[in-house]
């Protein structure tokens, strides 16, 4: 995102597909408003090929450019002003399927698109656009039983305040006063916060659909802020995990176990994270193997066999990324772990990069593997 962070996290905005090196295909004129538009707004629009079209009213402006991350049109998509003072333009090629952050630069100033809904990413509220995916049904809002996502405020003596988390409880949770559930602690990436996995990632809908199809056992998901966004470019080597580890393990987890019907204990807990949240997951799971039995890094690096000191404590290591990231590295790391006697699974999301479609698909693949024991 922007220019603040190391390779593990810098690609969180990239999501834009690489454009063809040959002559671009003819653009189909079947544009429809993006599903993430503000109520009643026609633009931005997307077509069946994945192109996006933008319209910005700025009659006095000298330059308007739409910036869709680090990929796609290098330098952004420049818009052209018509006789009415309205700026319009279309991406020079199709975008990857799924969710993307973007913003508009007008005469050097950075603004959000007034036609689009906003999502917290790159350490600010950014505009969002959704490119319909061929496999979008797994995170669609369907006519199935739905779980509940609620905000909690938990005391944090180490930071001297109360902190926020969001908790997903599966369908049927409120109907039983006795059934208990395992817990996945799920972390966002750099520049995001605890709203990302449900707003951008649609984690709750993914779980609802998987549970309805009988593909995963129900479990609770807890999402909290990873305290990562003060990390500046070149400063990742100085990132200290201990403050967040204290918040997560010593403050949030006891609160969740007290206020929700969890199954306490290491064998019933998982930790996963995307991008920098994956880095946090790795650091905490290696430092505290007594806390989690399931580890998952989603575009967030890998584990080496020698890093797993007691293989009997690890029920699963899940590694994933997009096919435009480091698929060979993810696959080979999982192979090495399996050869060392660790239950490891790799997943590569086809035709995606460091973006939410990769992580949505990763959660879909991960969830059925959790808490099998």
From TrEMBL:
GO molecular function term, any single one: acyltransferase activity, transferring groups other than amino-acyl groups
Gene3D superfamilies per UniProt: alpha/beta hydrolase, Immunoglobulins
Pfam family, one: Esterase
Highest taxon of source: Bacteria
Record protein name field: Enterochelin esterase-like enzyme
Organism encoding this protein: Mangrovibacterium marinum
């Amino acid at each position: 995102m922007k220019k603040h962070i190391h390779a593990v996290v810098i690609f969180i905005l990239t999501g834009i597909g690489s454009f063809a090196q040959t002559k671009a295909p003819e653009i189909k004129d079947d544009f429809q408003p993006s599903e993430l538009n503000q109520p009643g707004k026609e633009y931005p629009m997307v077509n069946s090929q994945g192109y996006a079209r933008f319209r910005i009213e700025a009659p006095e402006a000298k330059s308007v450019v739409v910036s869709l991350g680090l990929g796609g049109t290098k330098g952004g998509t420049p818009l052209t002003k018509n006789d009415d003072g309205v700026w319009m333009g279309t991406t020079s090629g199709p975008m990857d399927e799924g969710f993307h952050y973007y913003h508009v630069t007008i005469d050097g100033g950075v603004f959000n698109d007034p036609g689009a809904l906003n999502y917290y990413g790159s350490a600010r509220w950014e505009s969002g656009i959704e490119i319909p995916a061929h496999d979008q049904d797994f995170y669609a809002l369907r006519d199935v039983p739905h779980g509940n996502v609620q905000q909690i405020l938990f005391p944090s003596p180490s930071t001297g305040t109360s902190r926020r988390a969001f908790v997903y409880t599966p369908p049927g949770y409120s109907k039983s006063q006795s059934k208990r559930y395992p817990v996945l602690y799920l972390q966002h990436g750099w520049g995001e916060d605890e709203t990302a996995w449900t707003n951008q990632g649609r984690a709750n809908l993914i779980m609802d659909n998987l549970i309805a199809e009988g593909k995963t056992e129900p479990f609770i998901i807890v999402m909290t802020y990873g305290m990562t966004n003060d990390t500046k470019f070149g400063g990742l080597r100085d990132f200290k995990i201990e403050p967040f580890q204290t918040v997560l393990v010593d403050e949030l987890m006891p609160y969740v176990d007290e206020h929700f019907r969890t199954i306490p204990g290491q064998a019933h807990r998982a930790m996963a994270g995307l991008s920098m949240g994956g880095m946090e997951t790795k650091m905490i799971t290696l430092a505290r193997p007594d806390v989690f039995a399931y580890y998952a890094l989603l575009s967030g690096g890998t584990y080496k066999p020698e890093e797993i000191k007691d293989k009997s404590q690890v029920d699963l290591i899940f590694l994933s990324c997009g096919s435009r990231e480091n698929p060979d590295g993810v696959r080979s790391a999982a192979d090495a772990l399996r050869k060392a006697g660790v239950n490891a699974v790799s997943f590569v999301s086809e035709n995606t990069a460091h973006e939410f479609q990769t992580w949505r698909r990763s959660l879909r693949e991960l969830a059925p593997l959790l808490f099998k024991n």
